[in-house]
Amino acid sequence: MLGTRRRIQIPQDEIQLSAVRSQGAGGQNVNKVSSAIHLRFNIYESSLPENIKQRLLQIRDRRISSDGIVVIKAQTFRTQEKNREDALSRLQQLIEQAAEVPKRRIPTKPSRGAKERRLQSKNRRSQVKAMRGKIKE
């Protein structure tokens, strides 16, 4: 069971973890040890609340496919267990980001003084530019 700070529980059977070989240099051991972790999480088939599912799908993140599957590859650490913890914590952070309700923006209007100052500065600028022209006799 994966839990978040916002009391969202994800059953372990909804998360697919598989061990794969890590990329890059690493000597002889890297060719025989599968220490990287591939995490797959299907948003549509999960038990998450509907509003969080929608916000997760709206997040523009390369880890979320168009099919609604989150794919996280963790290979930072040398041990499989630490990479598993890293992948789960990254999924947890992604879900917490989606669970955060964005604050509604309240549209504001410029004050009367701000409008007057804007018009005065436009007028001053206009006069400066008018003075640059040819002098009429």
Describe this structure in words.
The structure is a single chain. This protein has 137 residues and is of the alpha+beta class. The chain has one domain (2-99): 2-Layer Sandwich (Double Stranded RNA Binding Domain), CATH 3.30.160.20. It is built from three helices and five strands. The chain has helices at residues 50-58, 80-99, 112-131, and strands spanning 2-3, 9-10, 15-20, 36-42, 69-74. The strands form two sheets. Strands 3-4-5 form a three-stranded antiparallel beta sheet, with helices on one face. Strand 1 and strand 2 form a beta hairpin. Helix 1 (50-58) crosses helix 2 (80-99). The protein is elongated, with a radius of gyration of 28 Å. The chain starts with a strand and ends in a 6-residue tail after the last helix. The mean pLDDT is 85.
Q: What would the keywords be for this entry?
A:
single chain, 137 residues, alpha+beta, Double Stranded RNA Binding Domain
Number of domains: 1
What is the spatial order of strands in the main beta sheet?
A: 3-4-5
Give the CA-CA distance, first to last residue.
88 Å
Structural class: alpha+beta
Percent range of helical residues = 25-40%
- Unreliable stretches (pLDDT < 50, length at least 5) are none
Order of helices and strands: EEEEHEHH
CATH topology: Double Stranded RNA Binding Domain
Assembly type = single chain
- Give me the Rg, rounded: 28 Å
CATH architecture: 2-Layer Sandwich
Largest sheet: 3 strands, antiparallel
Q: Given this structure, which CATH class is correct?
A: Alpha Beta
Could you report the average pLDDT, rounded to the nearest whole number?
85
Number of helices: 3
Strand content: 15-25%
Shape, principal axes of CA atoms: elongated
| Strand tally | 5
